[in-house]
Amino acid sequence: MKWHIILGLFLIIEIGGSTTLNAQVNPSIDELHNYFNNQQLLHTYREGEVLYGTYYFIEIHYCANGYYGLYGNTVKRTVLGNEQKTNWQEYGSWKITSQDGINGIFYAATNGNQQFYPLYKLANGDIFINEGVTIVKQGLAVCQ
Predict the structure, then answer these.
(1) C-alpha radius of gyration, the chain, whole number
(2) Which of 55, 73, 89, 119 has the fewest CB atoms within 10 Å around its CB?
């Protein structure tokens, strides 16, 4: 009887592991450039627990000239039921590039911070940056 269970588990693991799932792929440089160029995107995510975590709402304007404007808001609930809200702005340059064979977006802020984020395209065509981060197109970027 034990060998039936072991054989069943083996077959489930073997069959389940043999199928290739293309849940996400690394999009081309052109695909990413077309997705971000001259667009206003809203990035949202949460850090911490549902009740007492911090919610981030980040609006980024990706200008065609390679500059970006970021407008961030956070909302954090305290144990006493209060809300702490903060706002900030950041400006700098952006470019779609490849790092270690992975295509993504590179930011260089005017304050000196630099960061590369690998990007993936989901089966439905949405761009994926990290688990729990939502990206929604809001229209055209407001650029000068």
Answers:
(1) 21
(2) 89
- In sequence order, which ranges of 19-132 are alpha helices (DSSP H)? 29-36
Residue 4 lies in a domain: no
Contact criterion met (CB below 8 Å) for 92 and 109: yes
Structural domain contains residue 45: yes
Q: Which residues contact 28 (CB under 8 A, 6 or more apart)?
A: 103
CA separation for the pair 62, 40 (Å, rounded): 6
* Each residue's pLDDT tens digit, 3-33: 344 334 333 333 344 344 456 789 999 999 9
* CA-CA-CA-CA dihedral for 37, 128, 27, 98, to nearest 10: 80
Is residue 18 situated within a structural domain? no
Residue 14 in any domain: the answer is no
Q: Which domain holds residue 91?
A: 24-140
The one-letter amino acid at 71: Y
For the entire predicted model, the pTM comes to 0.77
For the chain, what is the domain count?
1
* Among candidate residues 45, 75, 46, 73, the one with its CA nearest the CA of residue 59: 73
